[in-house]
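Students often ask why inverse folding is considered easier than folding. One informal answer: many sequences map to the same fold, so there is more than one right answer. In these notes we will look at a single instance of the problem. The structure comes first.
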């Protein structure tokens, strides 16, 4: 009797274990069949090599490095503009922002007034919201101040951030509408440090929407000026040569870590597609480093538009990879549609490429053979390994990036066929875009012109801002 009872109990326990394993396996399969959550982590003015996964020895980024290890690191990835606003316009629409006149920085000028995003342009959020995703924009917007340009009117169910391009990281007494932290248009009063506040919101949103697919545009203003950091982090890096940047970067990394941990706790990390990148190259005024790259934010050399870029989707893309194919932030929209199995509307023009076949080993080579940049008086073109930079009323230079990543050897008079080819390609691309709808302040345009000319001549830049120009 005892032996029979014992046998029954053993069999019962075994069946329970098998049932649990079966349920877990079924749940995992179910989760993989769901459309993925999509998160774009866009940081601001970060240097190309200012992360551990990019080779930094002095800036600590353990959580971002972990994301890189579980995903794919791109070594030849670019944004569509070398300054904040147009770069964001290209990313969020998946097309060259020059197609709708969003070429210069900011969202209008004194002559035109605020213009922002064209009313008829479609954003990623528009498409994902229409297809059942819960959508949120967190952090810096900088795509227009009119009601029609508010994130809630551009496809985002929620907006928790600020409209302007730069603001204090700490609370502001009586902030204007442009700089105030807001939630769907309503002012939010906060204590503490902006990077933490945005990070906390990202975690809260995930907790609230864990059971349905979501699209999160997480646009930190770090490490853009002003160089504000928490006291405890300044103390942590008190002897660091780049103290403020190190402290700001550490806080950014902490908050990205909080996001990763929450995804893991909720068992949705495997089916969450994450992109991590900077909106442009490191700035001249935040002590960032471009490493071997020439130039910085605002100019058409590699330091202005080649950015650190990670793509992670654990259930679908093998981690610990490096991808050297020519790619662009414009690819994020197209790739995300493919990941979510959302059919692109036939009338929606996108300039990006689906990166998934390349990352899964189904395709080899370069997603793009050509990329283009233009901001008012300066332009650039990339075809294969060759890169041309053109300065209005001055001329152009040609480089072979495979042999000269630092863009020091001008091949214009040596490789004339390639020079002519890139000139033709740039002209052809320009024939398909529209004139810029607004300009930048003349003093800044003069500074930018000076920087390009000096770098094209491999000479020292004499000034990097209007105030420095005035004193020279």
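Output (designed amino acids):
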């Amino acid at each position: 009797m005892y032996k029979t009872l014992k046998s029954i109990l053993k069999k019962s326990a075994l069946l329970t274990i098998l049932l649990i394993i079966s349920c877990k396996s079924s749940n995992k399969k179910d989760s993989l069949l769901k459309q993925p959550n999509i998160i774009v982590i866009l940081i601001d003015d970060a240097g190309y090599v200012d992360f551990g996964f990019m080779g930094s020895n002095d800036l600590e980024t353990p959580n971002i490095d972990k994301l890189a290890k579980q995903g794919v690191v791109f070594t030849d990835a670019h944004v569509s503009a070398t300054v904040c606003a147009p770069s964001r316009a290209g990313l969020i629409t998946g097309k060259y922002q020059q197609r709708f006149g969003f070429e210069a920085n900011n969202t209008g000028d004194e002559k035109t007034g605020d213009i922002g995003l064209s009313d008829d342009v479609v954003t990623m959020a528009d498409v994902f919201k229409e297809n059942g995703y819960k959508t949120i924009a967190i952090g810096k917007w900088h795509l227009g101040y009119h009601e029609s340009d508010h994130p809630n009117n551009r496809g985002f169910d929620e907006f928790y951030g600020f409209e302007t391009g730069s603001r204090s990281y700490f609370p502001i007494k009586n902030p204007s509408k442009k700089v105030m932290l807001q939630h769907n248009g309503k002012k939010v009063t906060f204590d503490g440090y902006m990077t933490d506040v945005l990070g906390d919101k990202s975690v809260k949103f995930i907790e609230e929407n864990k059971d349905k697919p979501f699209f999160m545009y997480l646009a930190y203003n770090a490490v853009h000026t002003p160089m504000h950091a928490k006291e405890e982090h300044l103390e942590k890096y008190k002897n660091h040569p780049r103290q403020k940047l190190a402290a700001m970067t550490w806080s950014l990394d902490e908050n990205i870590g909080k996001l990763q941990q929450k995804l893991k706790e909720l068992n949705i990390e495997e089916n969450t597609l994450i992109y991590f990148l900077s909106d442009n190259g490191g700035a001249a005024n935040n002590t960032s480093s471009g490493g071997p790259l020439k130039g910085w934010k605002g100019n058409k050399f590699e330091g202005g538009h080649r950015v650190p870029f990670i793509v992670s989707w654990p259930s679908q893309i093998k981690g610990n990879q490096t991808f050297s194919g020519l790619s662009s932030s414009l690819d994020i929209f197209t790739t995300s549609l493919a990941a979510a199995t959302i059919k692109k509307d036939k009338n929606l023009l996108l300039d990006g490429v689906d990166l998934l076949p390349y990352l899964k080993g189904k395709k080899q080579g370069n997603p793009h053979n050509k990329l283009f940049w233009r901001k008012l008086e300066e332009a650039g073109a990339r075809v294969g390994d060759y890169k041309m930079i053109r300065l209005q009323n001055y001329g152009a230079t040609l480089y072979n990036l495979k042999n000269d990543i630092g863009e020091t050897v001008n091949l214009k008079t040596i490789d004339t066929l390639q020079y002519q080819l890139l000139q033709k390609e740039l002209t052809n691309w320009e024939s398909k875009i529209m004139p810029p709808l607004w300009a930048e302040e003349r003093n800044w345009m003069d500074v930018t012109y000076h920087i390009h000319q000096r770098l094209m001549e491999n000479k020292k830049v004499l000034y990097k801002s209007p105030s420095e120009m005035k004193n020279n």
